[in-house]
Amino acid sequence: MTERRQPSLSTDTLPTREAAAIELLSQVCRELDSIVFATSLGAEDMVLTEIIRRERLPIRIFTLDTGRLPAETLELIEVVERHYGTQIERYAPHADAIADYVSRYGLDGFYDSVPARQACCRVRKLEPLKRALAGQSAWVTGLRAEQSVTRAELPAREWDAANGLEKINPLADWSEHEVWAFIRHHRVPYNPLHDQGYPSIGCAPCTRAITVGEDVRAGRWWWENPETKECGLHRREFAPRQPSAHPAIERDRSAA
Ligand code: SF4
Q: CB of 125 within 8 A of CB of 233?
């Protein structure tokens, strides 16, 4: 079990947020069948995993195993499976598509240009996601509006035209503090990289720790401009956003 080093935070708003997320997911389950939840094993996705399993909601859980995930994330998949007594389905890229990418760009060609990076995300994430969503009526995500400039107008429920199904974002209006308050309160397992300055965790070569004062998404594709920093799974229009502070960063600030 991960050591819990996140700071003590107010939980005043948590019951309301939690009840609303449960009600939204329950409503979707009453209206639709074939609902899936895409987890990246990040903090928000651990909140949703806890809710889905505890409320026994009929929602399948899957993850995109890109082949470049950090060891900590791979270990967390197994921790989650043991903790909740459930299986997380893995969707991996096709080997021939990876071989094509490597022959054209090189294994780490994503550092060279935005198109090269987007091509890698297409092969390792978007195509497996298409397979995972095929034939489903809705998918659940752990997106929050304040996470990035590309997510500022995020609704709780929307039509995902690119994939042809509903997209449910139960944590759209949650703050980072609420996410971590939930994790602490319910003793939810989480990725140990969060305690090492990684508020947002993706593939290992495209994720770094952030420093005091940096945006929470600064460690993702840090060599690109903010408006291009989406892998395509959740691409949205660019819009201004308020600065956000990961609890680990707040902790560092108060200690400075
Ligand atoms: S995050 Fe990086 S390694 Fe992962 S699919 Fe995208 S470009 Fe490739």
A: yes
Residue nearest to atom 1 of ligand 1 (CA): 203
**Distance from C-alpha of 128 to C-alpha of 123, rounded to nearest angstrom:** 8
> What pLDDT does residue 153 have?
81
Number of neighbours of residue 161 by Cβ within 10 angstroms: 8
Under a CB-based contact definition with an 8 Å cutoff, are residues 85 and 62 in contact?
no
Which residues partner with 106 through β-bridges? none
Instruction: Enumerate domains of the chain plus CATH numbers.
Output: 14-255 (3.40.50.620)
Tokens encoding 105: 């760009």
In this prediction, residue 60 has a pLDDT band, given cuts at 50, 70 and 90, of very high
Specify the residue with its C-alpha closest to ligand 1, atom 4.
203
**Predicted confidence (pLDDT) per residue in 120-133, tens digit:** 999 999 999 999 99
CA of 121 to the centre of ligand 1 (A): 5
Active site residues: 231
Name the residue of 66, 73, 111 whose CB sits within 8 Å of the most ligand 1 atoms, as the mutation to test its pocket.
Answer: 66
Cβ(144) to ligand 1 under 6 A? no
Amino acid 242 reads: Q
